[in-house]
Amino acid sequence: MKKFFYITASALFLLGACESKTNQKDTSVQELSKEAIAVHDEIMPQIGTFDRTTVKIDSLLGTNIDEQKRQELEQLKSNLESATDNMMTWMKDYTPDSTNIAYQEEELVKIKAMKKQFEDVSLESNNKLAPFK
Q1: Which of 98, 91, 87 shows the shortest CA–CA distance to 30?
Q2: Which pTM value belongs to this model?
Q3: 41-to-31, 37, 47, 48, 68 alpha-carbon distances in Å
Q4: Are 36 and 108 in contact (CB under 8 A)?
Q5: Contact at 8 Å (CB) between 46 and 124?
Q6: How far is Cα 80 from Cα 66, in angstroms, rounded to an integer?
Q7: Which of 53, 96, 97, 113 is the most exposed place for a label (fewest CB within 10 A)?
Q8: C-alpha–C-alpha distance, residues 42 and 115, integer Å
Q9: What is the Cα 123 distance to its own chain's centre?
Q10: DSSP state of 98
């Protein structure tokens, strides 16, 4: 009878330990997902600015500007569109309720890289469009 008690107690202890790890994993996955969404929410409003800037660039390209400025503006427009397209693709493909921790970690890396891209393009836009303000 004592053996049965010890085996049952050990089994319950192991099940409790496994459940605790599962709960910790779920919490960690949820935290990663929340962090990814928070970064998304931080940079998403810039898309409207990027779209308006693209329209402004189109307007400037229709004027008489030198070839170097034209190329710079075309490159800027391409960079703005690329950042916007990357965000749209990420949003379409992202699965926030995925319980795969590796997936959530990978997506967090992607959205943080996208944040850097948005920051870089925003700075580039401010610098290249400053003479036209």
Answers
A1: 98
A2: 0.79
A3: 15, 6, 11, 13, 35
A4: yes
A5: no
A6: 21
A7: 97
A8: 8
A9: 18
A10: -
d(C-alpha 121, C-alpha 78), whole Å? 10
Dihedral sign, Cα of residue 78, residue 81, residue 83, residue 85: negative
- Say which residue the tokens 């330990």 belong to: 17
- Residue-wise pLDDT tens for the chain (133 aa)? 555 444 544 444 544 544 444 555 567 999 999 999 999 999 999 999 999 999 999 999 999 899 999 999 999 999 999 999 999 999 999 999 999 999 999 999 999 999 999 999 999 999 999 998 7
Q: Which amino acid is at 5?
A: F
Q: Output the six-digit token pair for 49.
A: 């600015």
Amino acid at 2: K
Tokens found for residue 58: 């189109």
